[in-house]
Model the fold of this input.
Amino acid sequence: MIIYVGKDYQDVSRKAANIMSAQIIMKPNAVLGLATGSTPVGLYKQLIEWYNKGDLDFSQITSVNLDEYKGLSGRSYRVQSAPFAGGGEGDIYDVVGVSGYVAKVYKPDKRTTERERKLSVMVSNKPNVMEQYAWPLDVLYENGRFMGYIMPKINGKEKLRNIYVYDKRKGKPWSLFIAIAKNLSAAVHNVHEIHQVIGDLNPENILVNPIDGMVTLVDTDSYHISDSSRTYRCGVGMPEFVAPELQGIHFPSAPLPTFTPESDRFALAVLIFALLMNGAHPFSCTVISGSSSKFQPIDNMQNGKCAFFPDNCSSNMNIPRYAPELSSLPDNIQKLFRRAFIVGQSNPALRPSAEEWYNALEQLENNLKTCLKDSQHIYYYGAKECPWCKVNEKMRSISQSAFNIRSEERRVGKE
Done:
């Protein structure tokens, strides 16, 4: 290897251009390996200058562009030399010259035949409303080797968890959370319409526009995808959103089927519940007395205990302090939650579909009213009182009690 040293970037660029131009002159039909990114820009500018003067002829030259991939579609893609994001599976690159597209390039040990086939199925079987997903659009290859895939680039959206949790909701109207729930229902419905299953549906892989509530599902390459001959499994699941019948199983190796449309319906119902109920998980609770260690959401889920349904909970359970009463919702939505969490415990097929949720939420969206005491409080017009005023009053009471206890402890400590 020969190393050339220059005094600055311009000097190095010109030396590199001299070497390359000499090769072109000596061998007019040369094959050149050309890199992308900002580093060789000075070299290319110099070659362009000489070409424009008539000193170089590129007519017989063949270029092999590094960081260039061939799609399953036959289309070529060049990506930026450095990724703008990454994770355990691979890195995400902007696609050069194609606005709105990015490439996910897997790490070498993740470039499996199984994943390649799964993505190929997804490319040929897309949902109707593509704006709702970072769905694979093309499969990428380099010299015939599987590398990754092309997908839409998502801008201006936040993870759902950063929006719906209790301490992040301040200043956001309830109507926004209804819109998010409705749009999420539509996105899940459209996946089920093409006979596919999401699997790991959780607030970390759902992005939301915090202004209008539009939803985009990401990490779609982890979905539970099937074709006529086989299933390409989803190998992960966030326990708080995994249906009771799937709790505790090892998804990468468990006998198929694992995830189903019914398990998606459970996760969807959990997310809708959290959106409508001030961020509360449907199986979360406060414990009236004793230890709460045996009343965690996953334990309650497996035992079929839900504090929001008095006929299906322990006498030692109550709803979380920051959550409104279930009765603040319309009867039809209360019944859908019962089907999702109580009736569906023994018969998952009875869980509400995404389409049922969409229709019920659209109806709720058209039946709202504003609180007379606080104009930021929007709630179901059929509720007896403003549930948000009631929650705020309850939280203030708890804060005051805690303050009184601390004050008493300090007073006693001084005596």
The chain has ten helices and 18 strands. The radius of gyration is 28 Å. Residues 387-414 form the longest helix (28 residues). The mean pLDDT is 91.
